[in-house]
Design goal:
mainly alpha; two-stranded antiparallel sheet; two-stranded antiparallel ribbon; 15 helices
Length: 373
C-alpha cells in the first residue's frame, strides 16, 4: 500500500525512488513486522493469560512438558497479523502472486484457529478432528489449484507460460522439463501445500523448534523469488541460472521478509523456556504459506530438500503409525521424531538448536542447486 500511494510521487520527492527496489521493501517489511510483534506481544500474552487461553499438554508425552500446561497459546495469531500488515504495506498491491500466498496463509490460519479453539474449549489435545482438518485444508488448496488453471485473466503471463511444468533440482529448467496434465498438477500442488501445513504443525512441539526452520525456509525463498525475477544490466538471472523465469514472483520477497521479521519477534518470546506458544493458528498457516511459496516460485520438488526438517518430522509420524498398525511395533520411542530424541535423554535446547543447524545446512544445499546443474 505504501508503494502504491507514495511511489507515484518519486518524481517530486526523489528519495521515494528507493521504493522501487525490492530489497529495500523486503527489509522494510521485515522491520515493520518485527516492530509490530515486539510492541504487541507483551500485551497479547497478558491478554491470553487473562482469558486462560493456555496450552493443553499430551499426558503420554515427555515428562518435562507437563510443566508447560497452561502456557499462553495461539500466539501465532499475532505472527499472522504482523505478516499480513507488513506485506500489505510494502508489497505492490497489483501483484496477484502476493495476494495468493497471503490468502492461503490467512485461510489456513482460520483452520488453525478453529482447531485451537476446540482444544481450549474441551481442555483436550484432540481439537478439530483430523478428517475435518484435512477437508478444510484440501478445500483451500484445491480452490487455489482451480484458480491457477481456470482464472487466467488474473494471473501473470510469465507464470501461466510454465504453470504445468516442474523444476527438477540439479537439472536446468529448460533442459529436462517435466510437464503434468492440469488435473495432476492441481492434485500435486494441493498435496504440497497441505503436506507442508501439517508438517510444520507436527514440528511445532518444542520451544522455538518450528519457527526457526520456517524463517530459514522463508529466507531461502526470498532469495529464490528475487533471483527468479530480477535483471542486472539487462541480464535475466533466471535464464543464466537455468531456473524458472518469473518476474512477477519477485514481489514474494516482500512476503518472505515480513515472515522473517514476524518470526524473530515471536521467537523473542517463544525461545526456551517459552512465554507463549504458536498454536495451530500459527503452525498450519505458516506451513501453508511455505507450501504456497514453493508452488508459486515453481520449487515444489526443491521444497523436499529445503524443508527437510518438516519432511522428516511428518514421515516419522506416518512411519510410526503405519508400523504400529501393521506390526504392533514402534519405530521411534515417540513421534514426531523430536520427541524421540527427548526420550533418549537429549535436553530440549539441544534438540532445537541441532534441528536449526540441519535446517541451515539444507538451505545452503538448496541454494547450491542454483549452480550445480
Amino acid at each position: 500500500m505504501i508503494y502504491y500511494l507514495l511511489y507515484p510521487l518519486h518524481e517530486e520527492l526523489s528519495f521515494l525512488n528507493v521504493l522501487r527496489y525490492v530489497p529495500f521493501r523486503a527489509i522494510a517489511a521485515a522491520l515493520t513486522a518485527l516492530l509490530v510483534t515486539f510492541g504487541v506481544y507483551p500485551w497479547f500474552i497478558r491478554r491470553l493469560q487473562r482469558r486462560q487461553i493456555g496450552q493443553v499438554v499430551r499426558k503420554e508425552g515427555p515428562e518435562g512438558h507437563l510443566s508447560k500446561a497452561g502456557t499462553p497459546t495461539m500466539g501465532g495469531a499475532l505472527i499472522l497479523l504482523a505478516l499480513i500488515i507488513s506485506t500489505v504495506l510494502w508489497a505492490d498491491p497489483s501483484n496477484v502472486m502476493v495476494w495468493i500466498v497471503t490468502a492461503v496463509t490467512a485461510a489456513y490460519g482460520v483452520v488453525g484457529y478453529i482447531d485451537d479453539a476446540a482444544k481450549i474449549r474441551r481442555k483436550d489435545t484432540g481439537g478439530l478432528s483430523g478428517r475435518w482438518k484435512l477437508i478444510l485444508q484440501f478445500a483451500v488448496a484445491l480452490g487455489l489449484g482451480a484458480y491457477l488453471w481456470y482464472g487466467e485473466s488474473g494471473l501473470p503471463s510469465d507464470w501461466l507460460a510454465i504453470r504445468d511444468r516442474l523444476s527438477v533440482p540439479f537439472v536446468g529448467f529448460d533442459r529436462h522439463p517435466i510437464t503434468l496434465p492440469p488435473w495432476a498438477y492441481v492434485i500435486f500442488a494441493s498435496v504440497c501445500i497441505v503436506g507442508f501445513s501439517n508438517a510444520v504443525n507436527l514440528t511445532d512441539g518444542l520451544d522455538g523448534l518450528a519457527i526457526g526452520p520456517v524463517m530459514i525456509n522463508s529466507g531461502t525463498y526470498l532469495i529464490l523469488a528475487y533471483l527468479a525475477g530480477v535483471t542486472f544490466f539487462g541480464q535475466d538471472l533466471a535464464s543464466y541460472l537455468l531456473i524458472p523465469s518469473l518476474p512477477s514472483a519477485i514481489e514474494l520477497s516482500i512476503y518472505c521478509g515480513a515472515l522473517i521479521g514476524a518470526g524473530f519477534g515471536f521467537l523473542w518470546y517463544n525461545t526456551y523456556p517459552a512465554q507463549v506458544f504458536m498454536g495451530d493458528v500459527g503452525s498450519l498457516a505458516l506451513g501453508g504459506g511455505i507450501g504456497s511459496l514453493a508452488v508459486m516460485t515453481k520449487n515444489e520438488l526443491l521444497s523436499l530438500l529445503l524443508g527437510g526438517i518438516f519432511v522428516v518430522e511428518a514421515v516419522s509420524v506416518i512411519g510410526q503409525v503405519a508400523s504400529y498398525k501393521l506390526f504392533k511395533k514402534r519405530i521411534f520411542l515417540m513421534a514426531p521424531i523430536h520427541h524421540h530424541f527427548e526420550k533418549k535423554g537429549w535436553p530440549e535446547p539441544r534438540v532445537i538448536v541441532r534441528f536449526w543447524i540441519i535446517s541451515v545446512i539444507l538451505a545452503l544445499a538448496s541454494l547450491a542447486t542454483l549452480k550445480l546443474r
